[in-house]
Design goal:
The chain has one domain. Helices cover 26% and strands 36% of the residues.
Length: 120
């Protein structure tokens, strides 16, 4: 089992956030990495729903703010819907994923378990 490290950075490389999820397979596809990240973010939010969501992509009916997304009212978020939004954003270059020292270009080829996701 491996530990996945998610690290958010600005385009200039300044770290914004970093967190890990242990107990993952040694090899995962980019799709699996994105879904893992989104599921973890949504699980954290849903444990104590607030009117703001801090995650990779904007939930339906939310407004973009400098430090996340503002929901009309505190509510649980559905991780599968967020994962679909994130996958589409990746395919549309809404963010990119670095695997070690190279950029992932596809959702499904096998990859390593250390990822950095950068907004474009």
């Amino acid at each position: 089992m491996a530990t996945v490290t998610f690290r958010d950075e600005t385009a200039t490389g300044r770290a914004l956030a970093e967190w890990q999820v242990a107990g993952q397979p040694a090899r995962m596809t980019v799709r699996e990495l994105i879904r893992l990240r989104v599921r973890e973010e949504v699980t954290r939010h849903n444990a104590s729903p607030r009117d703001r969501f801090h995650g990779l992509v904007r939930p339906d009916d939310a407004e973009t703010e400098p430090n996340g997304y503002r929901l009309r009212e505190p509510r649980p978020i559905h991780w599968r819907r967020q994962a679909e939004i994130a996958e589409q954003a990746f395919l549309a270059n809404g963010f990119f994923v670095l695997l070690g020292d190279h950029q992932a270009e596809d959702l499904d080829p096998a990859s390593t378990t250390t990822a950095t996701m950068l907004p474009t």
